[in-house]
Amino acid sequence: MPLNFTFSAEDEQVRDEVRDFLRAELDPDLVAASRRSSGMFVDRTLARAWQQKLHRRGWGAVAWPVEYGGTGWSPAQLFIFREECARAGAPSVLKQGPDLLAPALFAYGSDQQKACYLPPMLTGEHYWCQGYSEPGSGSDLASLKTRAVRDGDEYVVSGTKIWTTHAQYADHIFCLVRTSTEGRPQQGISFLLIEMRTPGIRVEPIITLAGDHEVNQVFFDDVRVPVTNRVGAENQGWTVAKHLLEYERGSGGAAAGLKASLDELRRAAAHDPAGVMPIGADPAFATRLRALEIRFQALEFIEIATLARLVAGQHPGSGASSQFKIASVDVQQTIETLRLEVAGHYGLPHHPQISLNGHTDARVGPASAELAGAGYLSGRAASIYGGSHQVQRNIIAKAVLGL
Ligand SMILES: Cc1cc2nc3c(=O)[nH]c(=O)nc-3n(C[C@H](O)[C@H](O)[C@H](O)COP(=O)(O)OP(=O)(O)OC[C@H]3O[C@@H](n4cnc5c(N)ncnc54)[C@H](O)[C@@H]3O)c2cc1C
After folding, report:
1. How deeply is 77 buried, as exposed, middle or buried, from its count of CB atoms within 10 A (0-12, 13-18, 19+)?
2. Using one digit for the tens of pLDDT, what is the confidence trace for 235-289?
3. Distance 382 CA to ligand 1 centre (A)
4. Residue 142 and residue 178: Cα distance in Å, rounded?
């Protein structure tokens, strides 16, 4: 028996407003183009088109504090907004700017940095990528080697970042750089904001197993960056970095998209394209689907609790954000696994869909099978990026269990 949230009349009014907006602004082309994307995020053109529409309606960053352009909505209203957007098929846009960098700027940015960087995030004019990981410095992030050497009013940055999502579209990157080799590795890191068109930056694509170009390696060769682009004090970047990671792992927002995927999975499992027995009627499959639904409900409650903390002005917390990341990614990957089972051979990645008589025909096969294989492969990365599951469990062991 599903548990349901009860929403107030004001909450339901927000839902009506969001639905009206989506009916008017979310055109079918945008939905279709988003659905065709097997990657984690849609490309920049779609992202900007959608962000501009949201911004014009005053919803460019609904969860930001009101003073910076947020809505002041309650946790339930934020939840409803995300739920309705996901249900309607709104594009999943890269969150590095508004959801990750912005909270770091609220807490540690100078007034000049806030004035310069927050408004173009809202309008979609600036598109950010995240320069944390390096070859050899992923889980052990503090061992990073990209150097920034002070030269007057500038830093000269040399080194490389890897797995940089959407660096090929981004016009800005926030980077962790080494400004000192004294003391513990964490003590010699600074946090810099860098324009991607600065001379000396080169982006090389990395194509994933799913066949997508989402990640890249970025090279820095004597790149000059104004000292005023440093967030926080020199050698104190680790504090800024950790604050940002809490938002990357646990600021909520996952449940809405997963709910839409779960609904789609249920529909697909109840239908058999060959007209025999739908896989959803198989008791073993049905049991796994029910177990997934129970875990999903737990996630929804964690998400509301997380939103309540954020609306109250608290940050997610390192242990709680790690728990949230594991819970949401487990649900996501189980949905993708079951979706692939439902799709059967129609879900084979890198191939046009194959008809039952062996002829290839892109029009054959259930719509739900489209990209099931590529989506499954792409989704495996979720338990790696933002810090692997093993690393999250280490954090929980320390921060929550005190081990
Ligand atoms: C699709 C994708 C997108 C990404 N996007 C970005 C991005 O935009 N910006 C960015 O900066 N980074 C990005 N990353 C990088 C990501 O954060 C790293 O891949 C991740 O932190 C793991 O680091 P690594 O790849 O170096 O693996 P490693 O650190 O080498 O880990 C290898 C394995 O060892 C395990 N392991 C390592 N240390 C421990 C430990 N102490 N205890 C237990 N197990 C351990 C890990 O769990 C993993 O299974 C992305 C990665 C992917 C796959």
Report:
1. buried
2. 999 999 999 999 999 877 788 889 999 999 999 999 876 767 888 889 999 999 9
3. 10
4. 9
How many angstroms does the Cα of residue 313 sit away from the middle of ligand 1? 30
H/E element holding 51?
helix 44-56
Ligand 1 center to 369 CA (angstroms) = 29
Whether 84 sits among the annotated catalytic residues: the reply is no
∠ CA 76-256-21, rounded to 5°? 75
318-343 vs 283-311: helix axis angle to the nearest 10?
150
In three-state secondary structure terms, 195 is strand
- pTM given for the model: 0.92
For residue 131, the ligand 1 atom closest to its alpha carbon is: 11
User: What are the pLDDT digits (tens) for 181-235?
Assistant: 999 999 999 999 999 999 999 999 999 988 889 999 999 999 999 999 999 999 9
> What sign does the CA torsion over 5, 55, 91, 197 have?
negative
Question: What does the radius of gyration of the chain's CA atoms come to, in whole angstroms?
Answer: 22
Reading the block at residue 248, the tokens are 């990357």
Residue with tokens 């080169």, as numbered in its chain:
202
What token pair was written down for 92? Answer: 């999943």
Catalytic residue among 134, 214, 248, 300: 248
- Listing DSSP states for 259-317 in one string gives HHHHHHHHHHHT--TTSS--GGGSHHHHHHHHHHHHHHHHHHHHHHHHHHHHHTT----
